[in-house]
UniProtKB/TrEMBL annotation:
<keyword id="KW-0862">Zinc</keyword>
<comment type="similarity">
    <text>In the N-terminal section; belongs to the transposase 2 family.</text>
</comment>
<comment type="similarity">
    <text>In the C-terminal section; belongs to the transposase 35 family.</text>
</comment>
<dbReference type="InterPro" id="IPR021027">
    <property type="entry name" value="Transposase_put_HTH"/>
</dbReference>
<feature type="domain" description="Cas12f1-like TNB">
    <location>
        <begin position="300"/>
        <end position="367"/>
    </location>
</feature>
<keyword id="KW-0233">DNA recombination</keyword>
<dbReference type="InterPro" id="IPR001959">
    <property type="entry name" value="Transposase"/>
</dbReference>
<feature type="region of interest" description="Disordered">
    <location>
        <begin position="226"/>
        <end position="249"/>
    </location>
</feature>
<protein>
    <submittedName>
        <fullName>IS200/IS605 family element transposase accessory protein TnpB</fullName>
    </submittedName>
</protein>
<dbReference type="InterPro" id="IPR010095">
    <property type="entry name" value="Cas12f1-like_TNB"/>
</dbReference>
<keyword id="KW-0238">DNA-binding</keyword>
<dbReference type="Pfam" id="PF01385">
    <property type="entry name" value="OrfB_IS605"/>
</dbReference>
<feature type="domain" description="Probable transposase IS891/IS1136/IS1341">
    <location>
        <begin position="171"/>
        <end position="288"/>
    </location>
</feature>
<keyword id="KW-0479">Metal-binding</keyword>
<feature type="domain" description="Transposase putative helix-turn-helix">
    <location>
        <begin position="1"/>
        <end position="44"/>
    </location>
</feature>
<keyword id="KW-0815">Transposition</keyword>
<dbReference type="Pfam" id="PF12323">
    <property type="entry name" value="HTH_OrfB_IS605"/>
</dbReference>
Length: 403
């Protein structure tokens, strides 16, 4: 299985100038490929992938307009064409319904004003030197801060310049799966705002995953800098300075959150054989916008993605409950469904069976029960008697309704 390992790199000023050129060329080729595809599509012409690559890389290099493409590693350009193709396909398959999940927008042209720049290289564009440096074609040897060991030879690398001006190398490495001994326990995960997640497990134990601690101060600092930035005039030098100032704490917050998500996901995967989660796409669709903002701040998507990666690696299963579940409003005891449950209500009593519920723990139990029922229906996975008496999936209602 493939994983990403990311390290800070320290290019010299001369190398930074070269890298800027590669970012620029990769961007131009990405956009050219997208444009060729769009024009061909509108004209009703079918172009093969290799024909597109020939036009925007090989032939383009021979023209005076694009001659400077010769100065950068051609693997970076080829990968850029591939990225462009993937963006286009994702968009098309999303529109035609072939691709599930959130609808993808039309691929966006890349701009020199994008604050995050990157390009990708496969094996023939880079190598790791015995002196611990990273050799990048046409750029040279770049110093790397090896914060942890690379588990194996990387198959590709993405060179990134973040908005705060730092450079990173993100390697794709093959990691052998290392399944853990199987366990009986399964868990339902309810992601939330007040805390990252509430877990209900088949052994009846509840566990809470708090939001990462110590982010409060950093987030307040970030908010202050964001306000400062918004007061500066767009396009001004001061605005640009502000933007770079914001990028630093922004990066720190992102890193702290990612580390925390990794740690929590590992514990969850270690302790449970199957982890049931709600489909965040469905969840996002029915929630209001302010909540959507909170969702993106809490980084649920990243957390669930990391759980999935770890589950793959350690031989566990992540089951996404595919149906719309009104998990917060459904009684995990008897399946009764409330019409409404305002967000500020943290505990409620079921009018049908009189059980008092903690909002989040109840939701986690509903997700667990529905997930297990779905898996049982799908592939005959045995459900232990412990779950009888809990809400059945179908009792939660079958038609998606906007809350
Ligand atoms: Zn009830």
């Amino acid at each position: 299985m493939q994983m990403r390992h990311r390290y800070r790199i320290e290019p010299t000023p001369a190398q930074q100038a070269t890298l800027a050129r590669v970012f620029g060329c990769a961007r131009v080729v990405f956009n050219d490929a997208l444009r060729v595809r769009e024009q061909a599509y509108r004209a009703g012409v079918k172009l093969s992938d290799s024909e597109i690559q020939r036009r925007v890389v090989t032939t383009a290099k021979t023209t005076t307009r694009r001659a400077w493409l010769c100065e950068v590693p051609s693997v970076a350009l080829v990968q850029s064409v591939n990225d462009s193709r993937r963006a286009w396909r994702n968009f098309f398959e999303s529109v035609s319904g072939k691709r599930k999940g959130r609808k993808m927008g039309r691929p966006r042209f890349k701009s020199r004003k994008d604050h995050r720049q990157s390009f990708r290289l496969t094996r023939n564009g880079f190598s790791l030197r015995s002196n611990g440096r990273l050799f990048v074609a046409k750029v040279g040897e770049v110093g790397v801060r090896w914060s942890r060991e690379l588990p194996s030879e990387p198959s590709s690398v993405t060179i990134i310049r973040e908005p705060d001006g730092r450079y990173y190398a993100s390697f794709v490495v093959d990691v052998p799966a290392s399944p853990l001994p199987p366990v009986e326990r399964e868990a339902g995960v309810d992601v939330g705002i007040a805390r990252l997640a509430t877990i209900a497990a088949t052994d009846g134990v509840r566990s809470d995953i708090d939001n990462p601690k110590g982010l409060g101060r950093k987030l307040r600092k970030l908010a202050q800098l964001e306000r400062e930035k918004s007061r500066r005039q767009k396009g001004s030098a001061n605005r640009d300075k502000s933007r770079r100032k914001v990028a630093v704490p922004h990066n720190e917050v992102a890193r702290a959150r990612r580390d925390y998500h990794h740690k929590q996901a590992l514990a969850l995967v270690r302790d449970n054989q199957v982890i049931h989660v709600e489909d965040l796409n469905i969840l996002g669709m029915v929630q209001n916008r302010r909540l959507a903002r909170a969702i993106s701040d809490a980084g649920w998507g990243q957390f669930v993605r990391i759980i999935g990666e770890k589950a793959d690696r350690y031989g566990r299963t992540v089951h996404t409950v595919s149906r719309w579940l009104a998990s917060s409003k459904t009684c995990s005891g008897c399946g009764h469904r409330l019409d409404e449950l305002p967000l500020q209500v943290r505990t409620w009593t079921c009018p049908a069976c009189r059980v008092v519920h903690d909002r989040d723990h109840n939701a986690a139990k509903v997700i667990l029960a529905a997930g297990r029922a779905e898996r049982l229906n799908a592939c005959g996975v045995p459900v232990s008697p412990a779950t009888s008496g809990q809400a059945r999936g179908d009792e939660a209602g079958s038609t998606p309704t906007a809350a």
